[in-house]
Design goal:
The chain has about 130 residues and is α/β, with parallel strands linked by helices. It has a single domain, classed as Peptidyl-tRNA hydrolase (Rossmann fold), CATH 3.40.50. It is about 25% helix and about 30% strand. The chain is built from 3 helices and 7 strands, in the order E-H-E-E-E-H-E-E-H-E. A 4-stranded mixed beta sheet has the order 1-5-7-6. Helix 2 packs parallel to helix 3. The longest helix is centred in the first third of the chain and has 12 residues. The chain starts with a strand and ends with a strand. The relative contact order is 0.21.
Length: about 130
């Protein structure tokens, strides 16, 4: 599960993917387990839920390069695009509204496009979190 955003700009609507991952890590009781992983240039936390192992990932790059971290982590943890969930902001959704999208185009989102390019696939499931338009 990759929370897309701009690592240096936490707290902004554009980095809501990372905020969702922070919340998920707290709910899974692994918030103290975040560690910097230089191999994929990201903060990583591992969790187990109902026997399923999860890799939580917050890329330490700008949004338009998030895919490099996601692809590196996929290689490290032997994951295919179909195993990856992207959590990202969506300007076209009202603030706080969420939707799940199964694959497809990036719809103009630079972080998602970066992931599609780096993984050579658009199969990733996306959790789109509404941030509204300014």
């Amino acid at each position: 599960v990759a929370g897309l955003g701009n690592y240096g700009l936490r707290g902004t609507r554009h980095s809501v993917g990372m905020a969702v991952l922070d919340r998920l890590a707290r709910q899974l009781a692994v918030a103290e387990g975040w560690r910097a992983d230089k191999r994929c240039c990201a903060d990583v936390a591992l969790a187990t839920v109902h026997g399923l192992e999860l890799v939580l990932l917050k890329p330490r790059r700008f949004m338009n390069l998030n895919g490099l971290s996601v692809a590196s982590a996929a290689e490290i943890y032997s994951l295919g695009p179909q195993d990856i969930y992207l959590v990202h902001d969506d300007l076209d959704k009202a603030l706080g509204k969420v939707a799940i999208k199964l694959g497809g185009s990036a719809r103009g989102h630079n972080g998602v496009q970066s992931c599609i390019s780096a993984l050579h696939s658009s199969e990733m499931t996306r959790l789109r979190v509404g941030i509204g338009r300014p």
